[in-house]
Amino acid sequence: MIIVTNRGPARFTRAPDGSFSAQRGAGGIVGVLGPNLSAEKDERIQWVATAMTDDDCAAVAAGKAELPGVDLELLVLEPRVHRLHYDVISNATLWFLHHGLFDLPRRPRFDHRFRDAWDAYVTVNRAFVERIADSASPGDVALVHDYQLSLVPGLLTKTRPDLRIVHFTHTPFCGPNSIRVLPDDVAHDIARSMVQVPCGFHTSRWASAFEASMTAVLGHDHRPTRVFVSPFAADAGDVLETRDSTATRDAIVELENHLGDRKLILRSDRIDPSKNIVRGFLAFDLLLREHPEWRERVVFVAMLNPSRESLPEYQAYRQEVEQAAAMVNERWGRADWTPVELDLRDDFPRAVAGYARYDVLLVNSLKDGLNLVAKEGPIVNQRHGVVCLSPEAGAFDELREAVLAVHPYDVDQNARALHDALSMPSDVRRERATRLRELASARTPAMWLGDLVDAAGPRR
Ligand code: G6P
Question: What does the pLDDT read at residue 44?
Fold first, then answer.
């Protein structure tokens, strides 16, 4: 089996003595899938991904980009080509498209710079195909992931027709009106590639949008090969093990000492406009205005990982996030109470400590393919915490009966939901949290992987 992702399951760090160590890759799917695959003993697992950092490239050059249980192949790309593929097309164009983030009167602008970037995108997708074609055994299953690699299915089908290829999208997929924003030939190339293999999504919403977009671009004569829905799962064993680790136990103690008997509203996200972090702070601001009884009795901890900082949109959004938090603190803070605490450390054990301790978990994404935090949090939580979840996150479909819905644009409604969550009677909280834990752990990563392999079909 070959797993193909843009970001690999580990990032490598070079120590001053020249040795390399591997850390869990950022991003929910690779973080969960990596450890699960290495547990599979009977089959050879290859993983093709991009060397994302200078240290990754150095690890490849030194022959040290290695992981136990997985044959890892990191592609070292020419820096300019890499930047255009990752920043301009994958993040500033396709991520924005699928999450509905374009400010359409101003962006996007498709000009000669976009065309250079599109050429680079094609080049990187070809480089992936060459590497897979060179290393795949006859009849192998190739599981290709996400918008960074949307041309791989079509190119690989031509180069290696013997392979059983599946494409899985971890983001939402834009609808037919949005896909028309792309230049006609670009939309056409993406669609022609994807319809050639089975395509998977986390919810039926994104699957239907994909089908409608394919019809809008290609007409009724080119139906997708097969479209399937398989929501990704949290690895309950792994997050519970992390909760019991020394690092997390220490972090829980630190958090407890800091919070005392105050309630905790938690969020844990990459700093990404799609996560809707600013409106979350505005809702908290409104809560403190409308409900003075919560002042000094609740702390909003935002564990945020800086992300894609080479893009001006992400730099600007980070500033807005910091300003919104500062505004709430200036307005309501007291000498011994900081209402909003930003924690920008990228530290998984610490995030799990937050999961264990929250009273309210806020996930108010504008749009989100699944949102793994909404599943991992309830599995780990020890206080019958309430999850406030956006219906625009794919996980909502599975968890809806035991969460409070938060409309991503309705700040008033969010403030009311936070109040309802904080004031919920303890017996109701217990009942809902128990049900939520069942729903969040109903599926396993192995079930998800099995669905993808089934979609690949039998060996031909
Ligand atoms: C989402 C995408 C992944 C991506 C991850 C982190 O989960 O579905 O493909 O790897 O975000 O984004 P990044 O740009 O840092 O890889």
Answer: 82
Q: Which of 167, 170, 202, 375 to mutate to test the pocket of ligand 1 (most atoms within 8 A of CB)?
A: 170
**Closest residue by CA, ligand 1 atom 3:** 27
The response to whether residue 99 sits with its C-beta less than 6 Å from ligand 1 reads no
The ligand 1 atom at the shortest distance from the C-alpha of residue 52 is 16
Residues 190 and 251 in one domain: no
In sequence order, what are the residues at sequence separation of 6 or more whose Cβ sits closer than 8 angstroms to the Cβ of residue 336?
none
The domain containing residue 392 runs over which residues?
236-441
pLDDT tens digit string along 168-204? 999 999 999 999 999 999 999 999 999 999 999 999 9
Tally of structural domains, the chain? 2
Q: Are 419 and 449 within one domain?
A: no
Nearest residue CA, atom 12 of ligand 1? 27
CATH number of the domain bearing residue 182: 3.40.50.2000
171 lines ligand 1 (CB under 6 A): yes
Whether residue 66 sits in one domain with residue 158: yes
Q: Are residues 130 and 150 in the same domain?
A: yes
Whether cis (ω within 30° of 0) applies to the bond prior to 108 is yes
Distances (CA, A) of 415 to 9, 95, 387, 402, 404: 37, 28, 14, 19, 12
Global confidence as pTM: 0.97
Distance CA 202, CA 169 (A): 8
* Ligand 1 close to Cβ of residue 203 (< 6 A): no
Per DSSP bridges, beta strands 20-24 and 10-14 are antiparallel
Whether residue 212 has its Cβ less than 6 Å from ligand 1: no
**Whose C-alpha lies nearest to ligand 1, atom 5?**
27
Together in a domain, 164 and 296? no
CB 305 within 8 A of CB 343: no
241, 223: one domain? no
Query: Within this chain, do residues 382 and 256 fall inside the same structural domain, yes or no?
Result: yes
